[in-house]
Amino acid sequence: MSKNSNQTCSASPAARKQVHLNLKPIAGLLILALTMALCSARADDPDEEYLQIYGLIQEADALATSGKAAPARAKYVEAHTALRNFQKSHLEWKAKLIAFRLNYVAQKVADLSEKPAADAGAGTVGNAPEAQPGAQAAASTLTAQVKLLEAGAEPRKVLRLHPNPGDKQTLSLTMKMAMEMKMGGVQSPATKLPAMTMTTDVTVKAVSDNGDITYELVMGDTSVADEPGASPQVVEAMKSALAGGKGMSATGTISSRGFSKGTEFKAPPGANPQARQVMDQMRDSFSQMAVPLPEEAVGSGAKWEVSMPVKSQGMTIDQTATCELVSIEGEHLTIKRTITQRAANQKIENPAMPGMKVDLTQMTGKGTSERTLDLGKLLPSAGTSDLHSEAAMALDMGGQKQAISTKTDLNVRLEAK
After folding, report:
1. How many CB atoms lie within 10 A of CB 411?
2. Containing H/E element for 220?
3. Do strands 249-254 and 260-266 pair parallel, antiparallel, or not at all (unpaired)?
4. pLDDT the model gives residue 36
5. Which residues contact 230 (CB under 8 A, 6 or more apart)?
6. Average of per-residue pLDDT across 164-181
7. Residue 39's pLDDT band (boundaries 50, 70, 90)?
8. Which residues pair with 335 in a beta bridge?
9. DSSP track, 42-94
10. Where among 65, 93, 114 does a domain terminate?
11. Minimal CA–CA distance to 33: which of 368, 293, 412, 304?
12. Final residue of a domain: which of 99, 114, 129?
């Protein structure tokens, strides 16, 4: 360990306080939804401008992944032009990062100019005959495998969602999070973020012959609750991010078995980078609200396993959920899930920390959730989720590696009307 590292670990209380303040941006690597604002809400003008350009690249990546080659190429060209203009205006701002981005975007443009559109069916659903080759893969659910473990008691029935076109629901989602963090041997005080509540209006637009459900959603009112001892700067940053997300709209498709086939969000005019981050997290969260259902007929006590990769905050996480049909009364179901998560070694890139190099060493998570479903509705009528995760990573700070470990507890409550 270098002399500077020893000084950090044995710093005075005042110096440790400064380290704790500097740790706040790292929280964005692990938390869900809107707390990315902790890192970026106070960005300087070049940072804000870069984040907007990075948002263009993310949009292009999403279009390319879904097989929309022509729109993706156009978006990459737009991003490349913006990067060149940014480079001319900010010659000394993270020159290596901008050069890397320029090369990346240029290569994407070249690839899309030479190759035909990719098969959009790259996102497939195991044990799901209704999956279509042309369906857009959801950003956070690239593949899913369902395995029936127990069929449950008689009588049994095939479980399928069957809302009617024109049906509307309002979803209220409340999230609470607490985090502990250690960096370079220095323990940061436990942080409890204020509860965040979002409302979303969802309308079923169409139901295909094979049961696929096309929907439209609009993000409505948001709020941040009072939390004793919470940093005023953090609270204001969270409020700013939430306010920026109001008015976001999206369209998507879910199969009758609850598999997301794609969700495309559209930010409101003039949306800031924080709103784009909210949009990405909403997309990831929404695609996981439904519970994937087995193909076979099942009864009370039935159990099945759902395995899928989940993308969140730049990480790819392997998730396995064991589902149990606790009760079934006509169209009304109660399903409990036990969830385990694991992420392998990987590099993490986060738009809230441009140019910062983070290597994830290990991430594990476990939790439980419960959903109450009405098969005649698109969304669960109620639900709870509790997840505990732990991660170890290394952060490159000016060529010097710093070890970071985190523990995060996330609680989510949802209710549909």
Report:
1. 15
2. strand 213-224
3. antiparallel
4. 36
5. 192, 193, 194
6. 91
7. very low
8. 325, 371
9. T--HHHHHHHHHHHHHHHHHHHHHTT-HHHHHHHHHHHHHHHHHHHHH-TTSS
10. 114
11. 412
12. 114
Per-residue pLDDT tens for 340-356? 999 888 887 655 455 56
Structure tokens at 190: 């436990």
Integer Cα distance of 383 and 368 in angstroms: 11
Q: Tell me if 380 sits within 8 A of 371, measured CB to CB.
A: yes
Omega before 133 within 30 of 0, i.e. cis: no
Which CATH number fits the domain that encloses residue 218?
2.30.230
Domain range spanning residue 7?
A: 3-114
Q: Could you give the CA distance from residue 224 to residue 241 in angstroms, rounded to a whole number?
A: 11
CA atoms of 98 and 84, how far apart (whole Å): 9
Answer whether 77's CB lies under 8 Å from 109's CB.
Answer: yes
For residue 281, name the pLDDT band (cuts at 50, 70, 90): low
Identify whether the C-beta of residue 360 lies closer than 8 Å to the C-beta of residue 347.
yes
What residues pair up with 249 in beta bridges, in sequence order?
A: 218, 266
Predicted confidence at residue 42, as pLDDT, reads 35
Q: Is the pLDDT of residue 100 over 80?
A: yes
The answer to whether residues 75 and 56 belong to one domain is yes
Residue 29 DSSP label: G
Query: What is the secondary structure of 106-166 as a DSSP string?
Result: HHHHHHHHHSPPPPGGGSEETT-TT--TTPPPPSS-SEEEEEEEE--SSS-B-----PPTT
pLDDT band at 116 (very low <50, low <70, confident <90, very high): very low
Same domain, 102 and 133: no
Structure tokens at 261: 């086939």
User: How far apart, in whole angstroms, are the C-alpha atoms of residue 287 and residue 275?
Assistant: 18
Confidence at 129, pLDDT banded by 50, 70, 90: very low
Q: What is the 3-state secondary structure (H, E, C) of 330-391?
A: CCEEEEEEEEEEEECCEEECCCCCCCCEEEEEEEEEEEEEEEEEECCCCCCCEEEEEEEEEE
DSSP state of 270: T
DSSP 231: -
Sign of CA dihedral 157, 285, 168, 334: positive
Within 8 A by CB and 6+ apart from 335, the residues are 291, 323, 324, 325, 326, 370, 371, 373
Report residue 191 as tokens: 């942080």
Which has the closest alpha carbon to 96: 88, 105, 87? 87
Regarding whether 292 and 250 lie in a shared domain, the answer is yes
Phi, psi of 122 (to 5 degrees): -60, -30
